[in-house]
Write a structure and sequence with these properties.
The chain is an alpha/beta fold. The protein contains twelve helices and 19 strands. Bound molecules: fe (ii) ion.
Length: 343
């Protein structure tokens, strides 16, 4: 097996390739690492045939939908996954063949209702059911400590003692463990009585993951994260530096349409000399009147440089072929002591 483990903070992704055929599967991909996965697959001469999510992640943004679409391959998940983009659903015990590798799905609810461990050769990908020295939490949506008890003590821990354990999370850079090592030393597995285990899990009192709402929204629907929306817009437009704009302002000849898309109060309080005002919220409805020439160079500015990126991308979509965004925003402009107008 050709094998890559890719960590993004504490989140672990895995690329498994068949040594004979070079067909591969990517497990639990993270939005932040899309280019890296594709680079690693290319380095190893692998062709990714499947993208798999072991469960609905509540703490990071899954790249499964995007990669499935980009690569034209199925997204594999548990039969209980709510994700509409999961086109290949596995039932408990079913085997997925990837080249000559055989991956066996184990339905292991508890951390989430749709949690699925995957066994391949000498290893098991334990999702958030079993972590190194811990278990997944059961206090997030669809979590259930009673189900986790069964999944751990009656399924995962009954696998071969020397099976290598690769979890979906490991915050301490340990890579992997074994079933035997976890049985011996994982503190949470020392509560072997069901009631004691459930009481321990119920009393953990963990903080909510930072991006809980956005992760559940996007992972369950296949929708975009805000960062993705901004990245997609950034990829469609050029940027102009604040230094260049400051030089244009200094020589009193902008040579372009500078469009300030903030709200009226902000514009009135102070804008770049020569700027034209058109709030983002009214952009699409007023462009025909305010920007009659689609070939003119238009530079969009806002407070922080994000809304202007979205607005410039919208203008490009509308046919303003020279729309660009200011690399920076009015906040940085003011803080640099650059000239402002209230006219
Ligand atoms: Fe999780």
């Amino acid at each position: 097996m050709i094998f890559e483990q890719i960590a993004t903070g504490g989140c672990q992704s895995y690329l498994l390739g068949c040594s004979d055929t070079h067909a591969a599967i990517l497990i639990d991909p993270n939005q932040a690492q899309i280019d890296r996965y594709l680079g690693l697959a290319a380095k190893d001469g692998l062709r990714i045939r499947y993208v798999l999510d072991t469960h609905t992640h509540a703490d990071h943004f899954s790249a499964a939908r995007e990669l499935g679409k980009t690569l034209g391959v199925p997204v594999v998940a548990s039969k209980l996954s709510p994700a509409p983009y999961a086109g290949f659903r596995l039932d408990d015990g079913e085997i997925l063949r990837v080249g000559n590798m055989r991956l066996r799905a184990l339905h292991t609810p508890g951390h989430t209702r749709d949690s699925m461990c995957v066994m391949a050769d000498d290893r098991i990908f334990t999702c958030d059911t079993l972590l190194i020295g811990a278990t997944g939490r059961t206090d997030l949506p669809t979590g259930n400590p009673d189900a986790l008890y069964d999944s751990l003590f009656n399924i995962v821990l009954k696998q071969a003692a020397d099976l290598k354990v690769f979890p979906a999370h490991d915050y301490k850079g340990r890579g992997h463990s074994t079933i035997a090592a976890e049985i011996a030393s994982n503190p949470r597995l020392q509560k072997r009585d069901r009631a004691d285990f459930i009481a321990m899990m119920t009393e953990l009192n963990l903080d909510a993951p930072t991006h809980l709402t956005e992760a559940l929204r996007t992972n369950m629907s296949g929708g975009k994260t805000v960062a993705q929306l901004l990245a997609d817009a950034s990829a469609q437009i050029p940027f102009v530096s604040m230094t260049e704009l400051a030089e244009r302002v200094a020589r009193n000849d902008l040579g372009l349409i500078l469009l300030d898309v903030r709200e009226k109060d902000a514009f009135t309080a102070g804008h770049i000399p020569g700027a034209q005002h058109l709030p983002r919220g009214q952009l699409e409805l007023r462009v025909n009147k305010e920007l009659p020439d689609p070939t003119r160079r238009i530079l969009v500015a806002c407070e922080f440089g994000q809304i202007s990126t979205l607005a410039a991308a919208t203008l490009r979509e509308l046919g303003y072929v020279q729309a660009a965004a200011l690399d920076g925003g009015m906040k940085a402009w003011r803080e640099s002591g650059l000239p402002l107008s209230t006219l």
